[in-house]
Amino acid sequence: MLRAVVFDLDATLVDHVGAATAGLRAWLAERGVEPTAELEARWLALEEQHFTRWRDGEITHDEQRRERLRAFLPLVGRQAGTPAELDREFAGFLAQFRRHWRAFDDALVVLAALRDGGLATAVLTNGVEELQRDKVDRLGLAGATGPLFAADALGVAKPRPGAFAAVCERLGLAPDQVLYVGDDHEVDVLGARAAGLHAVLVDRTGSAPPHERSVVGSLTEVLDLPAVRSALAG
Q: What CA–CA distance (Å, rounded) separates 126 from 189?
């Protein structure tokens, strides 16, 4: 019987791409640079590339930010500068990024329905704990999500099975009693299943792999999954 639903945070409960794009536009405007679709796409691609390097233990979290800027700043006519200068540049982006954080409209409703129905909820995120706790606090999610587990605090990141296993252990549950909900097929869904959890892909953009059968288009649809319905019915 299902006893808990654990969520990814960015792009699952929180509109990460929307906030990153809006934050980038504002950050560029402060520097007199006209945002373009090409620049926005490049920024998101660099985030994916270098965040993955940090997730895999190749570089530090600060260095993945600097690497993104080293590749991006020349595209807008600016020199990369020293590590300290890059850190100041990224702080400017981060301030704008924070201003545009938004939870998806279905997040609080679904979290409340699960908890009211007797299921535990939690968050497992590859983001750094300090930033992610700030995020859920600012968005009013802290009291709804249950405990938050971050890769840097756990010492292991998704998609490694150890990240999911560590969360199950802390919740005091067996993996097959937990459903994991995330937007990244490889990192969230396949990673969770490799650790013995149930998993469902949240596909808000219609880009799910054609072979994946456990897909929802919104968090609201999680409530209609047979295992969830059965658990909520008691």
A: 14
> Where in the chain are the domains?
4-15+102-233, 16-99
Residues with Cβ within 8 Å of residue 47, at least 6 apart in sequence? 20, 68
pLDDT tens track for 1-19:
999 999 999 999 999 999 9
Per the document, the length of the chain is 234
How many other CB atoms sit within 10 Å of the CB of residue 105?
Answer: 11
Tokens of 191: 């990673």
Angle CA(52)–CA(53)–CA(57) in degrees, nearest 5?
A: 115
pTM over 0.90: yes
| CATH 3.40.50.1000 given to domain 4-15+102-233 | yes
CB 151 within 8 A of CB 61: no
| CATH number for the domain whose boundaries are 16-99 | 1.10.150
Tell me the DSSP string of 80-134: ---HHHHHHHHHHHHHHHHHT--B-TTHHHHHHHHHHTT-EEEEEESS-HHHHHH
Q: What is the DSSP string of 148-206?
A: EEEHHHHT--TTSHHHHHHHHHHHT--GGGEEEEES-IIIIIIHHHHTT-EEEEE-SSS
The residue assigned the tokens 């998609």 is: 159
Please report the pLDDT score of residue 49 as a whole number.
97
Give mean pLDDT, residues 201-230. Answer: 96
